[in-house]
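Internal tracking record. Fields below are filled automatically when a chain is submitted to the structure queue. Please do not edit lines marked as system-generated. If the sequence contains nonstandard residues, flag them in the REMARKS field before resubmitting.
Queue: standard
Priority: normal
Entity type: single polypeptide chain
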Amino acid sequence: MAVYTGISGSVALAGGYNLHIKSFTLRIVSAEHDVTAFGSDGWKEWIAGLKEWSGSFEGWQDTVVAIQLPGQVAAALTLTAYTGKTFSGNAFVQQVEPAVDVAGVGSVSFTFRGTGILAIL
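SYSTEM-GENERATED OUTPUT FOLLOWS
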């Protein structure tokens, strides 16, 4: 099994913040439907339902790139975990949290929800 670090990870959100990203998370979920019947011999049975994806990313603020506000139209989002492994699709920014510390660098975190297919390249 190949193990990798996040050293080459990146995030690009078209029309929004895409510089100085230091971390991201991606959550891919499938709903399930209970199809247990009398013939299930006392065991629950399931079938796959709709899939969804969401996540967050965090980075440093700067004076050049505008922070994308939540609730705007879906934008192309590309998450690169390491060279050769990329996740891409369209996403809505749900929440933006800028933070400033007198002893630190201004940071910003984003929460997003994917709309449509998540391509894994």
